[in-house]
Write a structure and sequence with these properties.
Layout: H1 3-7, H2 11-20, H3 23-30, H4 34-48, E1 53-56, E2 59-62, H5 64-88, E3 93-100, H6 107-118, E4 122-129, H7 131-140, E5 145-149, E6 157-172, E7 192-196, H8 201-213, E8 218-223, H9 226-234, E9 240-243, E10 251-255, E11 262-270, H10 277-289, E12 294-295
Helix pairs in contact: 2-3, 2-5, 3-4
């Protein structure tokens, strides 16, 4: 593979860095963590063999090579965008999207808003369920594309990692841990956990995390919705582990010190199901806007 092809996944970073002139601004534009932008630039420097960053006092700015390559990258991306617009203007049809319960609060609404803006003639049917129910819908052909946590069986399903979601500890504002800036697995000892029921994707992720941390938790209640869990936590009935989002004021979110307190979100299709033109446009759109994966 030649150098140009190896650069393709990082072209949005290169174009944004050349335009903004700053690593921080590039991260903001692309909704990426700053370290991920820095790694992308370092990876491209290794491919092209020249420096793309140079020091300007305490700041890092694009080198001449970065500005020239970034301009070319921006032009190429604009041309691809224009071509996509041209070929999708006449696209119509329905795409069925299935997603896990916990993704319906903010992730899926943002995604659908972006898709309807890009493809106004395409309609979207939404199906919500547990992770096993999502995969079953894809397998049976009731859904074209799925969004779940944790990659499924690669033999049956094709998946793309599109986002990483941080998991945090949620406690009531009066809980002794509420004053902590971070927590570790040891802080869970002796606590009553309020979790989703078995079979739901987030519960599987949390059970795996707790097992890897060596935590043997007491589960006080099992629910079906994150909002129910958080409400019970706010009432002081226990603690829970949830994705970092905006929750009621009577709950305090505390990050874990463990780097693995995350879960990957993936886009999934069934390998044995042929994609329609409309569903292919959806997956292409997600690949374009969420590759490399964003941090939620």
């Amino acid at each position: 593979m030649d150098r140009a092809h190896r650069l393709l996944p990082d072209l949005p970073v290169l174009a944004a860095f050349a335009e903004t002139g700053q690593v921080t601004a590039t991260a903001d534009v692309l909704r990426m963590p700053q370290p991920q932008v820095s790694r992308s630039l370092a990876r491209m420097e290794g491919i092209v063999g020249v420096a793309l960053r140079e020091r300007d006092g305490r700041h890092v700015r694009p080198s001449r090579a970065a500005r020239e390559l970034g301009a070319a990258a921006a032009k190429a991306l604009d041309q691809v965008g224009a071509a996509l617009t041209a070929v999708t203007q006449d696209v119509s049809g329905d795409v069925s999207i299935v997603f896990q319960h916990s993704l319906g609060e903010s992730f899926i609404p943002r995604l659908v808003r972006s898709l309807t803006a890009a493809y106004p003639s395409v309609t979207f049917t939404l199906i919500q369920g547990s992770r096993p129910e999502c995969l079953a819908a894809l397998d049976a052909g009731r859904a074209d594309v799925g969004f779940v946590a944790i990659p499924p069986d690669p033999v049956t399903y094709s998946h793309t990692h599109i986002a990483t979601e941080e998991l945090v500890l949620a406690v009531s504002r009066t809980h002794p841990l509420a004053s902590h800036t971070t927590v570790t697995s040891g802080d869970l000892n002796g606590e009553s956990l309020i979790l989703l029921r078995h079979g739901m994707g987030l519960r599987t992720t949390i059970d795996t995390l707790l097992a890897s941390w060596g935590v043997h938790a007491t589960v006080a209640f099992e629910g079906q919705e994150i909002t129910t869990l958080v409400g019970l936590v706010g009432a002081g009935l226990g603690i829970t582990i949830v994705p970092r989002r905006t929750y009621p004021d009577d709950v305090t979110l505390i990050p874990f010190r463990h780097d693995d307190a995350t879960r990957p979100l993936v886009m999934v299709t069934a390998r044995h199901r042929a994609a329609t033109r409309a569903s292919q446009l959806l997956t292409d759109h997600v690949h374009t806007t969420m590759t490399p994966p964003i941090r939620l």
